[in-house]
Amino acid sequence: MNRVHNFSAGPAVLPTEVLEKAQNELTEYKDKGRSIMEMSHRSDEYEAIDQQAKDRLKSLLGLGDAFKVMFLQGGASSQFMMIPFNFLSEGQTADYIDTGRWSNKAIKEANIFGTVHRPFSSSDTGYDRVPTNDQLQLSEDAAYVHYTSNNTVAGTQFHDIPETNGVPLVCDASSDILAKPMDLSNFGLIYAGAQKNMGPAGVTVVIIRKDFMAKANTEDVPTILQYKTHGKKIFNTPPVFNVYMVNLVLEWMQKKGGLDYFKQYNEKKAALLYDEIDKDDFYQGIVEKDSRSIMNATFELQNDDLNEKFLNEAENNNLYTIKGHRSVGGFRVSMYNACPRESVEKLVGFMQDFRSQNY
Ligand code: PMP
């Protein structure tokens, strides 16, 4: 086996232990003579997995009974539509903090349903920053305030939760859910595609406060698009194997020491890389330092004639998927929970060698 150092932005590297456990159980789950993919989603075995994954997620995030967890399909992108469909009617306003490509896509969908106000936008400066609380110009009576906690493409991250004066927060946490402890008491809804920090692509985690869900529209909203439908029970066939994988990743996270452990681990990895970028002008960070993400680091070479050489030599060193998003250019290194520190150390070692050979 030759697993590469994988810095993919998503679908992203999974813990090898988790893949091996899944491999062991692939053809036969717990002496049942069939795999988890071949059983009813109403079977005792699957219902136990679904419940365990929900309980683990709540336990890791320190959430009590006020919240409901759902495993939905359609990716985080479907949530861009489902949130306003449920919570934003004509004549109502929702605040959407605009910090990147994905915030922008969420705004486009919300515009179909109601009025969108942007309390802050960094689009004029190439999405190089997230706001501080005093930069937010919130509207008077928003139905909710939406933000993207980690901007996967630009490489920025909120380090503080936006202050909204009691208006429920709705958060796209696709690329930093479970990366660190987070106080979710002011959140109405938090959602994330699993494919970065939680498992394979194909399942979307939605965590919703029950009293926020109670305010959802049901009139003229198709049944499958109502949160209330999914709040009652498993509505239709879920992506069973994906939920099973998420459960294994959450088990692995609990064994490692939970979110305090991952906060430290992730901050350490990010510091290793950013220290290297900041050493001199050979490498240059793309976003404002205060807004830098511990999950996705973006940088460029001062001499961009070296870009292709850098990528080729990185791959020759088993360092994969560090090309920046086409809208930003340069390089992007994604270091989610399952990205081992050794991978980042190997990359930093390579960057040092590349600098000394090409200065
Ligand atoms: N939001 C963020 C922050 C993302 O990074 C992504 C995917 N890269 C999405 C939403 C869209 O997710 P999906 O492809 O699961 O719809």
How does this structure look, described?
The protein has a seven-stranded mixed sheet, sandwiched between helices. Strands 11-12-14 form a three-stranded antiparallel sheet, covered by helices on one side. The model has no long low-confidence stretch (mean pLDDT 97). Helix 3 (75-87) runs parallel beside helix 4 and helix 7 crosses helix 8. The chain has helices at residues 16-24, 44-61, 75-87, 101-113, 210-213, 227-232, 240-256, 258-278, 307-316, 341-358; strands at residues 5-6, 67-72, 93-96, 115-117, 145-148, 150-151, 156-157, 169-172, 187-193, 204-209, 283-285, 296-301, 319-320, 331-334. The radius of gyration is 21 Å and the shape is globular. It is built from ten helices and 14 strands. It is 36% helix and 15% strand. With 359 residues, it is an alpha/beta fold. The structure holds 4'-deoxy-4'-aminopyridoxal-5'-phosphate (PMP).
